[in-house]
């Protein structure tokens, strides 16, 4: 990950962007593009929809940058903007639309025949597809916890701050989300698990 | 020290917790001891690790700078966006200069037409430094009566109100200058 992406834009850059400087705003988009897309992808399971959502996030950011307090860190504020836009957008849609599995990237990825272990590759592809489908069944609020935790590797405290939730709520949602996601894997993984040394 | 014995429910909670933060040593030992004797929890651990790995690796392809270009290109469609400080186009700058020059000409012509000679000369000297009053021809007596019919809009056009678009102000100023130039030239010819 580029240094700038981890550090975020300088306060002067944010101030210039808030005043309408297009070049400064471009710096912010470059610094945050990967994180916003990764969050959107985990929320939708579809690359094209993740890009649409990311574009909405940045357009909204452009209109609210003037409200940013430069004396506070930019990243937590930016995450709030991002999660608010994405959650509002998903909640405005019908439950079916708000879930994943609309065919975009939801199909299992075929294993690379050049892979040294095509069986393991196939299992990983099946797991990835099952996890994407499992995410689809989660409420958007749970999905947001999972997406923030995994798209940026945030701590529980950072996820809680981004979503304005108590840390215990974040822990509970993560636990229940993972529990729900590993359910479909039990049948998929029985073969693999049997080979890992049951007594 | 013998690890504490824990039930499956507690072991599964610890299996989840270890994904977000390292477990304290005592709890880690208790979990390892439990997994050593519980096949069901080992299966759960394997499934959980696969979910964890899948979530970690679930990243979209990066569209790169093309995405940034698209976002920046659509900023003018964002409602309530701050106004970008766009530079004035060259054509607008040219028109603005034309307006100023035409306005100066119009005021000079008007001054020649309506003011007594000395005042007109002083006005033109003020507008165009370096033009001596002595170089101006004399206006014959009674000439002011001939120009009393100048269009009323002449001063308004020459004053170039700032709310006019550049092309409108330029056109108005040019018309004003032309309208003033005709009687002035007539008067000058009459004065020779």
Protein architecture, described:
The complex is a heterodimer of chains A (199) and B (192). Helix content of chain A is 72%, strand content 0%. Chain A has 199 residues and is mainly alpha-helical. In chain A, helix 4 (47-64) crosses helix 5. Chain B is 64% helix and 0% strand. Chain B contains nine helices and no strands. Chain B has helices spanning 8-17, 25-37, 39-56, 65-73, 90-114, 117-127, 143-146, 153-159, 166-191. Chain B is rod-shaped and about 110 Å long. The chains are: A mainly alpha (199), B mainly alpha (192). At the A-B interface, helix 3, helix 4, helix 7, helix 8 and helix 10 of A face helix 1, helix 3 and helix 4 of B.
Brief descriptors of the model:
heterodimer, A: 199 residues, mainly alpha, 0% strand, globular, disordered N terminus, disordered C terminus, B: 192 residues, 9 helices, 64% helix, rod-shaped
Number of helices of chain B: 9
Shape field of chain A: globular
Share of residues in strands of chain A = under 5%
Low-pLDDT residue spans of chain A: 1-6, 100-112, 191-199
Overall morphology of chain B: rod-shaped
End-to-end Cα distance of chain A: 42 Å
Spatial extent as radius of gyration of chain A: 19 Å
Q: Strands, helices and their partners?
A:
The complex is a heterodimer of chains A (199) and B (192).
Chain A: H1 3-7, H2 11-18, H3 22-44, H4 47-64, H5 74-92, H6 95-98, H7 118-136, H8 140-151, H9 156-163, H10 167-188, H11 190-194
Helix pairs in contact in A: 2-3, 3-4, 3-8, 4-5, 5-9, 7-10, 8-9, 8-10, 9-10
Chain B: H1 8-17, H2 25-37, H3 39-56, H4 65-73, H5 90-114, H6 117-127, H7 143-146, H8 153-159, H9 166-191
Helix pairs in contact in B: 1-2, 1-3, 5-6, 5-8, 5-9, 8-9
Short structural description:
The complex is a heterodimer of chains A (199) and B (192). Chain A has helices spanning 3-7, 11-18, 22-44, 47-64, 74-92, 95-98, 118-136, 140-151, 156-163, 167-188, 190-194.
């Amino acid at each position: 990950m580029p240094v700038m992406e981890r550090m975020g834009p300088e306060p002067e850059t944010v101030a210039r962007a808030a005043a309408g400087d297009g070049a400064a705003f471009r710096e912010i988009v470059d610094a945050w593009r990967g994180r916003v897309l990764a969050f959107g992808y985990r929320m939708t399971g579809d690359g094209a929809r993740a890009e649409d959502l990311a574009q909405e996030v940045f357009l909204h950011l452009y209109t609210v940058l003037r409200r940013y307090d430069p004396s506070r860190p930019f990243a937590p504020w930016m995450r709030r903007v991002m999660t608010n836009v994405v959650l509002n957008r998903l909640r405005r849609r019908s439950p079916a639309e708000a879930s994943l599995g609309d065919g975009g990237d939801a199909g299992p990825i075929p294993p690379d025949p050049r892979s040294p272990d095509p069986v393991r590759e196939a299992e990983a592809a099946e797991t990835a597809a099952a996890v994407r489908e499992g995410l689809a069944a989660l409420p958007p609020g749970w999905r947001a916890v999972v997406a923030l935790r995994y798209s940026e590797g945030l701590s529980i405290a950072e996820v809680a701050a981004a979503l304005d939730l108590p840390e215990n709520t974040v822990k509970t949602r993560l636990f229940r989300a993972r529990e729900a996601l590993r359910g479909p894997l039990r049948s998929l993984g029985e073969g693999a698990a049997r080979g890992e040394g049951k007594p | 020290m013998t690890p504490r014995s824990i039930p499956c429910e507690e072991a599964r909670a610890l299996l989840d917790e270890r994904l977000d933060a390292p477990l304290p040593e005592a709890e880690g030992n208790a979990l390892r001891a439990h997994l050593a004797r519980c096949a069901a929890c080992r299966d759960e651990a394997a499934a959980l690790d696969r979910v964890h790995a899948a979530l970690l690796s679930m990243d979209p392809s990066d569209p790169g700078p093309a995405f940034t270009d698209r976002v920046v290109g659509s900023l003018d469609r964002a409602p309530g966006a701050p106004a970008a400080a766009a530079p004035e186009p060259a054509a607008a700058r040219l028109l603005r200069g034309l307006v100023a020059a035409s306005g100066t000409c119009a005021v000079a012509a008007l001054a020649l037409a309506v003011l007594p000679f000395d005042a007109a000369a002083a006005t033109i000297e003020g507008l165009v430094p370096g033009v001596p009053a002595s170089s101006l021809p004399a206006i014959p007596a009674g000439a002011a009566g001939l120009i009393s019919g100048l269009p009323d809009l002449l001063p308004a056009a020459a004053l170039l109100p700032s709310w006019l678009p550049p092309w409108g102000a330029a056109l108005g100023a040019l018309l004003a200058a032309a309208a003033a130039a005709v009687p002035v030239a007539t008067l000058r010819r009459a004065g020779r």
